[in-house]
Amino acid sequence: MYGSTIGTPAGPLTILADPDGVVYAAGFRTDVEELLGRVHPRLRGPVRARGDLGPVTAAVRSYLDCDLTALDEVPVRQHTDGAFMAHAWQTLRQVKPGGPVTYTGFAELAGRPRAVRAAAAACARNAVALFVPCHRVLRTDGGLGGYRWGLPVKTWLLDHERGLTGDTRSPRSMVEAAGR
């Protein structure tokens, strides 16, 4: 497994990926060991530093340079023992930039409208931030809720995406308009 840190306006983004460009973990920290702790034990391996992760690094740079779909095709790998969690992570990848949803809306998108806590748990256990965009999930009242990497990072990501989609509404207004 390779580790690389990319400077972003939201702070340093460290990514752990295999030689084939599959992302196992990503987060807005420089501490590789902290990030490796987010990877399921069955998927962990020694990490070697690498300045550039090829297509993964290129996709992040493209995202930062205004191509909000650049991360969509980057393969990710997370492990869970529950089928819902894996499905929820895949569902998160379908939430469009500039179109945040609430935890309730996320649970509905995942096909389990009553599983709001499970949907929130999927966000909390997501090891590949940015690539599986849990930052696009908000509280029912449109508030930010939490984010492992800090609310300033979540705010920057939402503002970046909202600005590039041309939507000037606040996340709360967007959620109210979408009715989710």
TrEMBL record:
Signal peptide: none annotated. The keyword Zinc does not apply. It comes from the Bacteria. Residues 84-162 form the Methylated-DNA-[protein]-cysteine S-methyltransferase DNA binding domain. Its EC number is 2.1.1.63. One of its GO terms (molecular function) is methylated-DNA-[protein]-cysteine S-methyltransferase activity. CDD domains: ATase. Keywords: DNA damage, DNA repair, Methyltransferase, Transferase. It catalyses: a 6-O-methyl-2'-deoxyguanosine in DNA + L-cysteinyl-[protein] = S-methyl-L-cysteinyl-[protein] + a 2'-deoxyguanosine in DNA; a 4-O-methyl-thymidine in DNA + L-cysteinyl-[protein] = a thymidine in DNA + S-methyl-L-cysteinyl-[protein]. GO terms for biological process: methylation. NCBIfam families: ogt. This is Methylated-DNA--[protein]-cysteine S-methyltransferase. It comes from Plantactinospora sonchi. The lineage of its organism: Bacteria, Bacillati, Actinomycetota, Actinomycetes, Micromonosporales.
